[in-house]
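Two proteins, back to back. First:
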Amino acid sequence: MTQIVKKDYSWISPLTTIGRSQQVVEKIVLNYLFREVCFISHPQNIRALTSQEYKAIAKSIDLPVNLIHPVISKFLVNLVYFRRFLRSYSFTYGYTKSLRKLQIYLHKLHRFAPIFDYPRAKENARILKNNLEKHCFLPQFTTQLAVVVFVTDLNDKEHEKKIIQTNLRVFCNCSAYAFHRTRNKLGLK
């Protein structure tokens, strides 16, 4: 009897076959997700994506679905936990006023979803704090996070398409009213 020996290629990860690292794939997928797909249902709840949406994302960024699905599903699950944390934690006045705390949370957001330029966001946070002091206006901490990420993305020349505002507000756990009120107060378009 002859036996056919199959070669075992299971040790080769799909990432090595396409020549990209895990962080690069996550950055590409999450950038596309934030800029092209609204992952929010009507009452500001996070929804799961359909299989057609996964296929459309895979087709548009030229990556297999089996790489995209775990990245997006892991991100959406972690986003639910992160939003619960932001809702349950009460930020005090001193905490909200601190530039250093804002930069720390920007770093956390960037590590969680690298969709904006972090060094530029740190500088934008400093500028935002100065403008808020001039206007004698101090919005909620999460609103400040959302505005800094919005301004950083607005001035970003690397991406032609901007982040969907609904995705950004849910990502930072900021209400639409507070976000637009702060934008109007600062004169942002």
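And the second protein:
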Amino acid sequence: MKAALMLAGGVASALSLAAAAQNKAPAQAAPKASEVTLVCEAVYLPARTTWTRTVLIAYDDRRVRSVQIDGVPVYTFAIQETVILTAIDNERIQIDTAAQTWSSDFRGQATAQGRCERS
């Protein structure tokens, strides 16, 4: 009988803890991500052609979450102050978000420089 009372007391306390947990405020949700789109006009040399490159940067209050260039998500990127460093195929890309400039090179075969505008 004593064991049954202890078991019943344990079950009652477990149920009251479960009820208290349900009434508890929900955990904080992840910060909402924001996005900014930069449209960059890059001039590629030596061909002297101008390409329009679109850069989508998703970020939250703490960090940059993702980067897409021309709709293609980049595999990896690095941040150095206001510059995003990344690569797509053989093109090494640097986007300065403060100066709003684009620079890139194709492993020494061609280079590009350009300005970006927020859209």
